[in-house]
Amino acid sequence: MRIGAAILSEDRNLRLETARATPLDTDGIFALRNALAVDGDAEVRGVAAERLGLVDVVRDLVARTAVRVALLDALGDASPFVRERAAITAGRHLRAPSTTLPAIDRLLTARLVEITLYEPMWRVRRASVRALAVLERGLAAPLLATALDDPFWRVRYAAIQALAPWRDVDLVAEGEIVSTRKSSAIGFLRSLWSGERVDIPREADDASTVRAGPLADDDPAVVAVRLSRLPDAAVSGADLVAMLASPHDVLRRIAMKRLAAREKPAELRAALELLEEPRTPYANAAVRRVLARVDSRALRAAIQSDASVGPALLAWTYDEGRAAREDMTTSARVHVTHADVRVRRAAARSLAACITAEGMGALEEGLHDADDDVRATCLGALAHVAVTQGGEGAGPLEKTLAETEPLRESPTVQRALALAAASLLVAVPTQHVEGALERFLVAWDPIARATAIDACSEAGTLDAIARARAGADADPWCRLAALDPPDASRAIDDDLDPGVRRGAFERLERAVRSRGADPIALATAATSDDAWIRSRATRAMRPSLETIEALLRLTRDAAPMVRGTAAESLAKVPDVALACLAIVGRDPPVDDELRLAAHGRLAAEGTAVAFDALEHDLTTRALATTTRWALLGMTVAYPEGVRAGSELRFEPRPEIARATRGVYCESGSRRPLGQTGVMVSPLAISGANELPSSELARARDAGVNTFFWEPGYRTLTEFLARAERKEDLVIIGGTYEADAKTIVRDVERTLRQLRVDSIGAMLLFWVRSPARLSDEAFEALSRLKAQGKVRAIGFSTHLRELAAVAIAERPWDVVMCRHSAAHTTLETTVLPVARARGVGVITFSALVYGRMLTSHDDGPPTLASDCYRYSLSQAGVSVCLSAPRRQRELEENLAVLGAPTLDDTVAARLRAVGEHVRAQNKAFLSLVRG
Fold first, then answer.
1. pLDDT in tens, 579-629
2. What are the CA-CA distances from residue 890 to residues 665, 696, 861, 921 (Å)?
3. Phi and psi at residue 879, in whole multiples of 5°?
4. Which of 373, 643, 740, 879 is most deeply packed, by most CB within 10 A?
5. How would DSSP label each residue in 423-474?
6. What is the Cα–Cα distance from 12 to 43, expressed in whole angstroms?
7. DSSP class of residue 542?
8. Cis status, amide bond into 588, omega within 30 of 0
């Protein structure tokens, strides 16, 4: 099957939809691999990685290798979204280990382990933990045990879930000093295995909370407001440093700004210490931003001279020095052999960035390092020296190339070696270099293989047999590398891969510019099914009377980029108007497409002669209805003076009403949101798990009119902004802030991003203290409601007692609280007050992080839809939030719309399951969440 060029389109949304629908055959796999590797949009790359996870068995060895290598690369992607999706997909592939190339699986496993130890984003670490869980028990258990010490409870819980089925595995290494955090997690596991509760006291996760003084409050939004209004002298450096780990963005930013402005060495050093635990949520990036704003040279020097300093701080000094283009060769020579790989990598990068005679020996030593990244860095640096100095110092590199067996190396090293050999082939074309490149022609890494093919082809050392083998390679990157001009001309039409077809066109363009190929071959590509190629081919046409018909047809192209290029080329054709008049007057007549294109060009001229030709066609020729209508429309493009006296009149066609897509639920199935007058579907869909737009549309068609939105929900943002039917749409939005100015800003941003006139319900998100529900916040929201920008105001909280008091004291419209069959306190605390006060209630966490879905009484597993129904069956609950991750989950949840309540028998069983979950949850809160 020929893969379309939509996956390479300039339209991001088209690329996204194409990636989600690309067939999972060999050609589709390579198209997705290409998107994962080179697409400039992180979401497209992430979707491609996710789609590759649906590939069950890839029989083609080359494609199977390509997928695994692409995932290995994607685990180092700049975007955490892509890294997370790649980790999930890596786990799916590790379930079916590669028997042909087990080395790749070992590399994937090693990369996942490294992520669990050093990755700053918790979602990526959690995905890696779950991926490692698919390994064989003896291998997986010790790897998962390291995640029991993760600073973030969600990652620890993922490790616990993976280890739970394996009773009595060894979770403590010999001689290991076990932290309280890990000890607590192990205690929770033992409680699962034994059924008995184990209490181990432990510290709370959120070390960023200020416990005393004028800033003391459990709600970080309140702390942020107080901090912004306190004089600098009243704030301690210790508090500011602690705030760098706060989950509250504004609080972190204020703390960063103050620390940078104060520039106190002791405070900066204390902030730097946070880097030693890179997994502390939010802290890593915050610390680096603070240090980027100050002159850190003295601080770096102090760390370099401190023998007791940790490896993360030491690595930071090299990265900062390299960014400042400082020569750190003297210390880097020593630290390139450091025991910690992070230091060795940073030192090697420093040596490579500032190559000196003194550092050459250290770079040569790095060629034998155990770490692939260190080796690759040193290889690249030495190759640069050899090329720029005419081969001087190339000896160690040539020796390495001669001794290296590509098939035994990782992709990182294979690529560095192939690139080094390709560089040396120009500067030092020795037998060792040529021999190394020949070996890389069969390397299993596709980039290394393509690099060798391309280098040999450019050097003229690729013989006919090797070129034919490369041209038939299953991997499109290698086929592209092997193309010469004659092959490129054929590949534009024949190759199945859209990337190869575009690459072939570019190669042909270069050959034409160097006068090594016939330019006619470029023009013939104007019939390609790829708009990008058609546009480039159009530009390559020589504007002349001979090409005018082809250019005219291209002005009618479906792609705007092609039409624009064709119009530019036509403008360069001499006597274009005369040629167009000749075309429309031709006998026998030309086809309608060419006639419309010629008249379109004549309309741009706007002359009386052109209008006469148009009138002649409309009054004398037998034209198709659509053609006649289009030509009539062109009459209005002519000046009024030219049209004077003509009887031709154009009126727009009556607008045809579009059929409403899908069948929406009747309004009778919707519920009132308290006394707000807002009608909501019983189930609201959250965009938290980036459900695809097609599935959001499915929910909308099924009857969902209520969506829970936050600014980070990219897919839901686009879906709501583009929604055609907004009159009954209810958006539940919110703000994490506490001051009036920022609350107003967040509302205005929501209206702007979603392109709506009002927000259904605007909440103060995650309220953790009464101080958050201040007069200032309430009055700001009330003013916005009076202005019509918000239809209902309220707050969300896990604290049910706080919620009950708040709605009794003040006329809030809506409250959002956790509720499930395992957490029923809402039924006796909040709901009676809400019913009495006419307050709408939104519930969430009906599944209790999925724990409600497992069977606890040897009966069938609980249905997610029944968990939502349990909450919706309580008098006073208006709507329950659901955050499905995939189509299957959405379809089950949508069943709630038709039957939103439970019968008593099912409700009783759910409460029994909930009691078990609640008992387990007490241990969970004590030992895991903290």
1. 999 999 998 899 999 999 999 999 988 999 999 999 999 999 988 988 998
2. 16, 9, 17, 26
3. -155, 145
4. 879
5. HHHHH---HHHHHHHHHHTT-SSHHHHHHHHHHHHHHT---HHHHHHHHT-S
6. 9
7. -
8. yes
**Computed from CA positions of residues 916, 920, 921, 922, in that sequence, does the dihedral angle turn out positive or negative?**
positive
**CA–CA separation, 508 vs 502, rounded Å?**
10
User: Which range (168-172, 195-199, 730-734, 916-920) has the least confidence?
Assistant: 195-199
Question: What does the DSSP 8-state code read for residue 7?
Answer: G
> In Å, how far are 227, 343, 767, 858 from 214, measured between CA atoms?
9, 41, 19, 53
User: CB neighbours of 359 closer than 8 A, spacing ≥ 6?
Assistant: 329, 332, 333, 351
Q: What values do phi and psi take at 654, rounded to 5? A: -55, 135
Q: How far lies 442's CA from each of 406, 446, 481, 739, in Å?
A: 8, 9, 13, 63
Q: Rounded CA gap, 614 and 898, in Å? A: 59
Q: Residue 522 corresponds to which amino acid?
A: L
pLDDT band of 404, cuts 50, 70, 90? confident
Is the distance from CB of 830 to CB of 817 less than 8 angstroms? yes
Find, among 636, 568, 575, 639, the residue nearest to 608 by Cα. 639
Q: Using alpha carbons, list the distances in angstroms from residue 872 to 444, 681, 816.
A: 56, 11, 13
Beta bridge partners of 879: 842
Q: How far apart are the first and last CA of the chain?
A: 54
Burial of 767 (0-12, 13-18, 19+ CB in 10 A): buried
pLDDT (tens digit per residue) in 172-191: 988 889 999 999 999 999 88
Q: How far apart are CA 847 and CA 862, in angstroms?
A: 10
Helix (H) or strand (E) holding 891: helix 887-898
Residue 768: strand, helix, or coil:
coil
Q: How far is CA 227 from CA 312, 416, 465, 765, in A?
A: 30, 50, 72, 20
Does the domain made of 671-929 have the CATH classification 2.60.40.10?
A: no
Does residue 831 contact residue 874 with C-beta atoms inside 8 Å? yes
The residue ranges of every structural domain in the chain are 519-643, 671-929
According to DSSP, the β-strands at 840-844 and 793-797 are unpaired
User: How far, CA to CA in Å, does 221 sit from each of 226, 749, 751, 812?
Assistant: 9, 18, 22, 19
Query: Which amino acid would we find at residue 399?
Result: K
Query: Do 822 and 921 contact (CB within 8 A), yes or no?
Result: yes
d(CA 234, CA 516) in angstroms, rounded, equals 75
**Residue at token pair 């003040």:** 810
Q: How far apart are CA 74 and CA 107, in angstroms?
A: 13
Strands 793-797 and 683-686: unpaired
What is the C-alpha to C-alpha distance for residues 238 and 684, in angstroms, rounded to an integer? Answer: 42
Instruction: Confirm if 698 and 889 have CB atoms less than 8 A apart.
Output: no
Q: What is the pLDDT of residues 794-832, one digit of tens each?
A: 999 999 999 999 999 999 999 999 999 999 999 999 999
Q: Which two tokens stand for residue 164?
A: 């739970």
Alpha carbons 350 and 317: distance in angstroms, whole number: 10
Q: Report the alpha-carbon distance of residue 728 to residue 660 in Å, rounded.
A: 14
Single-letter code of the amino acid located at 422: A
From residue 486, give the alpha-carbon distance in Å to each of 462, 472, 477, 517: 16, 15, 18, 8
